[in-house]
Design a protein that fits this description.
Number of helices of chain A: 18
Largest interface: A-B, 35 and 44 residues
CATH topology of the largest domain in chain A: Rossmann fold
Number of domains of chain B: 4
Oligomer: heterodimer
CATH class of the largest domain in chain A: Alpha Beta
Strand content of chain A: 5-15%
Helix content of chain B: 25-40%
CATH architecture of the largest domain in chain A: 3-Layer(aba) Sandwich
Number of strands of chain B: 19
CATH architecture of the largest domain in chain B: 2-Layer Sandwich
Radius of gyration of chain B: 23 Å
Strand content of chain B: 15-25%
CATH topology of the largest domain in chain B: Uridine Diphospho-n-acetylenolpyruvylglucosamine Reductase, domain 3
Structural class of chain B: alpha+beta
Largest sheet of chain A: 4 strands, parallel
Helix content of chain A: 40-55%
Distance between the termini of chain B: 12 Å
Structural class of chain A: alpha/beta
Order of helices and strands of chain A: HHHHHHHEHHEHHEHEHEHEHHEHEH
Shape of chain B: globular
Number of helices of chain B: 15
């Protein structure tokens, strides 16, 4: 984002408090400086010489969740997350970012992901449909991929796997590393070209947002017009509706809740899909979290897990507490990063975490 | 302001001992962000690169007991305590103009009980109003304080300045929904007001805290009245050529107790500018949105009678769409870039008066502002939106699109416009404010507003707060 647009956005947001009700980080820290307007005011104050970039101010800038809640609830669609990413890039260029950001940059450059010292796997084969695996599904919750393949096989699709072990570029972009993000994005696009696909299915709303919006808005990269992008949950819900896929009911009777994953608020049309699928396979009563659908808060799966792990943990714990209060005993989600965060802490709340795709694959009829 | 570093650290340690170190901040970012609320004056000051007085400590208490202990510290060291809810006040009531302890109440955000029999909710005062609304909505209920700031303001922040919401014409001001509350006094006592507001057990003393804006104590918990979510909400708009006739239509609806939940009467200038910009309508005249809710049959009958009043007075019925569109977009007026925003100068000089005076106040204020500041290219706009059986609120605003660049000069001009507006309001029998409160901005008019009664309020303040620690410089009280 050019600097004039950053100024325009932060000047619009610095004194606007209208998205506080969905401001996830402020909700768990209670710090006004970590609200969307607080972060915008800090940026505007640096621009006016009232503050300087230092550990305090940079810490604030790296405390934004970049989950889309502020923008999703802005009547005039102020691109504050994009402005914050641009400011982070400026901080990185000035060598003032937290050390972990430079460490992650090196990891992205070497391994294409922040989780494992392993190179991404090349695309094998060509086809009509691709499934984007990415790094989180590959390294954090690999059962997702196996289950997704089984589900697609049931509707007669054998997808080409792309981006295996490679980040989609969101994390690098969010950290203020746009050049690194561009390289990761270009690699994904090269995979698509190699595979010749016409459609790409993704496992999470975060992937969908990245390919559908972030590439264009933050990185200036056009998504290929010849490749249709779909979220797998939406695709499966449509298949269910059309009678192309069938599930049998499980025997489990425990109350359950679907956890809208990080970035779900960025796709307002997607909330019904996973719930429809779950209602088909689970006889137990569905519970709803207070922070759900269009007001869903993220878990700590965004860049916060690296730059502000304390805040990331608070976000995850808040979602689990919300789930506990709903009376649910089993939590179900689809995004691998969300599942990993929830899975690591769920036992503290007496809760069980289950991947949506695995559950559906087990119940294929 | 605590200037001695040794003492500064000592007080910080004491505060941390009470609330936990993670709930005390002295970071520069926090100090700057908490140095301004939503008032134009401090925002302009920062916008022009000028520093404001900041709090010394930002504290996030978790209970009334913790606040009580904080009061002990503030009294011991004679340092100010400034309560903070959402920071969405427009009057500068939350500005830490003498430094001290800024008490952010948002950590106290729990709902304690929802009583579905009596239709009440008891919640901590730091809860965001919209969160409270969402919670009661899940039980088919609503908290009918639909303020434009509901997304960001707290329950305590609605009560402390005597706030009003969009549907107040039927459901009342925030204070009308209040049954009882818990308050921490400046001297540290934690008290509860009577469990119900209507009784005959002596004077109505609990109302002292309403409108005190943190100068007489900190509201920490409140029990509020709820209503059922309405089965129907009927909205419609009409257009009047003549503002007087539009006001008369509103008066007749209220005095005949038709119970509209909203009558939003935009003057010609607002219709031409704000309504066109936000809603896209090119109306010429006074655009009025009228709404009825509740039982569908009763609401329909009320609407039918209201429309007869309007058409008898010469209004054009615009139909449902312009009423429903306003309802759906009623808060869009407050989002940038369409809200009033810097670098413009602006102020909401809202007032309230009886029906016999309100139109006179409108024209007097308009004349005082437009003629007094014609050389500044001032615009004066207004709407009438909170109606009572006896009168109505005028939400008047001035706008200067090219104010002086120099911060001091801009502030002086701003205060001169306010003086002109408020003098015309007081001279014509209006109140200096209906729902935004007094804060710092209107403090200087309190003596004039209350005349011989003002010393009584000063004595009450001294009794409640002998060391003058609570939010000094606000609502007319000094330090």
């Amino acid at each position: 984002m050019p600097i004039e647009n950053v100024i325009l956005t932060t000047d619009n947001c610095r004194y606007c408090l209208m998205c506080r009700h969905v401001a996830s980080v402020e909700h768990v820290t209670h710090r006004e400086a970590l609200s969307p307007h607080g972060i915008a005011l800090v940026i505007a104050s640096v621009q006016r010489g009232l503050l300087q970039w230092n550990a305090d101010t940079v810490g604030v800038i790296y405390s934004a969740a970049d989950n889309g809640n502020s923008r999703a609830h802005c009547v005039f669609d102020q691109p504050l997350p994009e402005a914050i990413a641009a400011v982070r890039a400026e901080i990185v260029a000035q060598k003032l970012a937290p050390a972990v950001v430079y460490d992650l940059d090196a990891r992205f450059k070497e391994w294409g992901n922040p989780f494992k010292q392993q190179k991404p796997q090349p695309v094998a084969g060509r086809g009509e449909v691709a499934l984007f695996v990415g790094d989180e599904a590959q390294y954090l919750w690999p059962a997702t991929v196996t289950a997704a393949l089984a589900l697609l096989k049931a509707v007669g699709i054998s997808p080409v796997l792309v981006g295996m072990g490679r980040s989609n570029g969101y994390l690098a972009s969010s950290l203020g590393l746009p050049e690194t993000a561009r390289r990761l994005a270009q690699a994904t696009l090269a995979d698509l070209e190699t595979s010749g696909v016409r459609r790409m299915l993704v496992l999470s709303p975060g992937d969908f947002f990245t390919f559908n919006q972030l590439y264009d808005e933050r990185l200036g990269i056009d998504w290929p017009a010849s490749v249709q992008l779909s979220e797998l949950t939406t695709f499966l819900a449509d298949c269910l509706e059309g009678g192309e896929i069938k599930f049998k009911k499980t025997t489990q009777r425990a109350p359950y809740a679907y956890i809208d994953p990080s970035h779900a608020v960025r796709l307002p049309a997607r909330h019904a899909g996973p719930r429809r699928l779950l209602a088909r396979v689970l006889p137990g009563p569905a519970r709803e979290l207070f922070w759900r659908c269009e007001r869903a808060h993220p878990v700590g799966s965004t860049a916060l897990q690296f730059t502000q792990p304390d805040i990331a943990e608070k976000l995850t714990l808040a979602r689990l507490e919300d789930a506990r209060q709903s009376g649910a005993q089993m939590l179900i989600s689809d995004d691998p990063g969300t599942l990993k965060c929830l899975g690591d802490k769920a036992s503290q709340f007496g809760l069980r975490v289950q991947g949506l795709y695995e559950l559906l694959a087990e119940q294929l009829d | 302001m605590v200037t001695d570093q040794f003492l500064y650290e000592m007080i910080r340690s004491e505060l941390a001992e009470i609330v936990g170190p993670e709930h005390v901040s002295t970071e520069e970012t926090d100090k700057l962000v908490y140095s301004t609320d939503w008032a134009w004056m401090p925002q302009m000051w920062l916008d022009r690169g000028q520093k404001l007085r900041t709090p010394d400590y930002i504290v996030h208490p978790g209970s009334a007991e913790e606040i009580s202990e904080i009061m002990d510290i503030a009294n011991k060291y004679r340092i100010p305590v400034v309560p903070w809810g959402g920071g969405s006040g427009t009057q500068g009531a939350a500005l830490p103009i003498f430094g001290g302890i800024l008490l952010d109440t948002k950590r106290m955000n729990q709902i304690i009980a929802i009583d579905e029999q009596s239709l009440t909710v008891t919640a901590q005062a730091g809860i965001i109003i919209e969160h409270l609304e969402w919670a009661v909505n899940e039980k088919g209920l609503m908290f009918p304080h639909y303020a434009a700031s509901s997304n960001c303001a707290t329950l305590g922040g609605a009560l402390a300045p005597r706030g009003t919401g969009t549907i107040s014409t039927k459901y009342g001001k925030a204070e009308d929904m209040l049954l009882s509350m818990q308050v921490v006094l400046p001297t540290g006592e934690i008290i509860r007001t009577p469990p119900v507001p209507q009784h005959a057990a002596g004077p109505d003393w609990f109302r002292l805290f309403l409108g005190s804006e943190g100068t007489l104590g900190v509201i920490t918990e409140a029990t509020m009245r709820l209503d059922y979510l309405p089965e129907a909400r009927l909205l419609r708009a009409v257009l009047f050529d003549d503002l007087s006739k539009a006001l008369e239509a509103g008066r007749l609806m209220m005095t005949h107790r038709l119970e509209p939940f909203v009558i939003r009467l935009y003057d010609h200038a607002s219709t031409r500018t704000q309504v066109r910009k936000i809603l896209g309508y090119d109306f010429s005249g006074a655009y009025v949105v009228i709404g009825f809710d509740g039982d569908p049959d009763i609401a329909a009958l009320q609407e039918q009678k209201a429309m007869k009043i309007c058409t008898d007075l010469g209004a054009i019925d615009l139909g449902r769409e312009p009423g429903e569109k306003w309802w759906d977009h009623r808060y869009d007026f407050y989002y940038p870039p369409h809200s009033l925003k810097l670098p413009w100068m602006y102020g909401t000089t809202e007032t309230v008066a009886t029906f016999d005076k309100i139109e006179r106040i409108y024209w007097a204020e308009k004349e005082a502002v437009e003629e007094g500041f014609a050389d500044q290219g001032v615009q004066f706009i207004g709407h009438f939106s909170h109606w009572f059986h006896w009168g109505v609120m005028l939400y008047s605003r001035f706008i200067i699109e090219q104010p002086p660049q120099d911060a001091k000069e801009a502030l002086r001009l701003h205060n001169r416009v306010w003086n002109a507006a408020m003098q015309s309001v007081i001279a014509n029998g209006g109140m200096i404010n209906e729902h935004h409160g007094v804060g710092l901005k209107l403090s200087r008019y309190m003596r004039k507003q209350y005349g011989p009664a003002w010393p009584l309020l000063l004595k009450l303040k001294k009794t409640f707060d002998p060391n003058g620690i609570m939010n000094p410089g606000k609502t007319g009280f000094g330090f």
